[in-house]
Amino acid sequence: MGRNPFALAALAAGALMAFTLAPGPIAAQTTATAIFAGGCFWCVESDFDHVDGVVETTSGYIGGTNQNPTYENHPGHVEAVKITYDPAKVSYDELLTVFWHSVDPTDAGGQFCDRGHSYTTAIFATDSEQIEKAKASKAAVKQDLGTVVTPINTAPTFWPAEGYHQDYYQKNPLKYKYYRFSCGRNATIRKVWGDKAFEGIKDSMS
């Protein structure tokens, strides 16, 4: 006995509608956030954009006393970068490794040629797990360097910086490269860390 083609078509359409309307599984978290202060946020952006698994970097201000801070008015804030990353591709521990080895965590007065509180290093944890991991990594760094002045804080509000600061190293490559070289950032990091300088990104830095 032959099958009725009209009945088969109706059955297929009904199955398709049922599949479309059926509730799907709840999507798993696909990104997470890390916030690091490492001196000039142009440079921190550039370094973390070399990390596989980093989705986005945003320069900004954090930790100060006023809302809506600007480059000209950010009392108590430090320059920092909010990093959006894919935990399936890069872990927070790996980001911590990149952070430590791309700054001078022994300098309490700023970073390289940039002096003052705005340019000091800090880790701003977004939850208790990040705090514990940051503390463990700091202890390991202290064994390497002897002195570590970088504080670990719970992250307050992060304020994105002005648009012209975002992706500065891409928008103004010649000015950026001159600034980074003349400020002595790479040279100082290599002096502090030796063969461990830029660990986690040295093979991908241009």
Account of the 3D structure:
The chain is α+β, with helices and mostly antiparallel strands and 206 residues long. It is 37% helix and 19% strand. It is built from seven helices and eight strands. It has a six-stranded mixed β-sheet with strand order 7-6-1-3-2-8, with helices on one face. The N terminus is likely disordered.
Please outline the helices and strands.
Layout: H1 5-21, E1 32-38, H2 41-48, E2 54-62, E3 78-85, H3 92-100, E4 110-111, E5 114-115, E6 121-125, H4 128-145, E7 152-154, E8 158-160, H5 168-171, H6 173-183, H7 185-193
Parallel strand pairs: 6-7
Antiparallel strand pairs: 1-3, 1-6, 2-3, 2-8, 4-5
Helix pairs in contact: 3-4
Short description, anyone?
The chain is α+β, with helices and mostly antiparallel strands and 206 residues long. It has helices at residues 5-21, 41-48, 92-100, 128-145, 168-171, 173-183, 185-193, and strands spanning 32-38, 54-62, 78-85, 110-111, 114-115, 121-125, 152-154, 158-160.
Low-confidence stretches: 1-27
Strand order of the largest sheet: 7-6-1-3-2-8
Radius of gyration, whole Å: 23 Å
Could you state the oligomeric state of the chains shown?
Answer: single chain
What is the SS-derived class? alpha+beta
Q: How many DSSP E strands?
A: 8
Helix-strand pattern = HEHEEHEEEHEEHHH
Q: What percentage of the residues does DSSP assign to strands (E)?
A: 15-25%
Shape: globular
Question: What profile does the largest beta sheet have?
Answer: 6 strands, mixed
Distance between the termini: 71 Å
